Amino acid sequence: MGYVINDKCINELDGSCVDVCPVDCIYEGLTKRYINPTECIDCGACLPECPVDAITTPKKADPTWAQDNAEFFSVALPGKDAPLESPGGAYGTGPIGVDTPLVANWTKE
């Protein structure tokens, strides 16, 4: 399992984490970023770069957000015909333009 991005990232697409990721495994949805759990090498470079502390280690990750990050890649997202899976890096895919149902329906407290 890779690092996990939680709800603190919703509507906060700063991108500092993307700039330091050596394997390009942080993908952009519509309002949130997602870390591909099969591409992440657990290096931790992204952790200190997040301005809102939305990234957590695999051991400290809330299971809800760990599952949500995984589902961004393993389940066909709304309006998509197939799962994103592991395309080998976010740079080539560009913004995905859609979020998981959990994020799309999330209301910040």
UniProtKB/TrEMBL annotation:
Cofactor stoichiometry and binding remark: Binds 1 [3Fe-4S] cluster.
Transmembrane segments: none
Keywords attached to this entry: 3Fe-4S, 4Fe-4S, Electron transport, Iron, Iron-sulfur, Metal-binding, Transport
Cofactor: [3Fe-4S] cluster; [4Fe-4S] cluster
Single annotated GO MF: metal ion binding
4Fe-4S ferredoxin-type domain residues: 31-60
UniProt key word 4Fe-4S: yes
Function statement: Ferredoxins are iron-sulfur proteins that transfer electrons in a wide variety of metabolic reactions.
The protein's name in its UniProt record: Ferredoxin
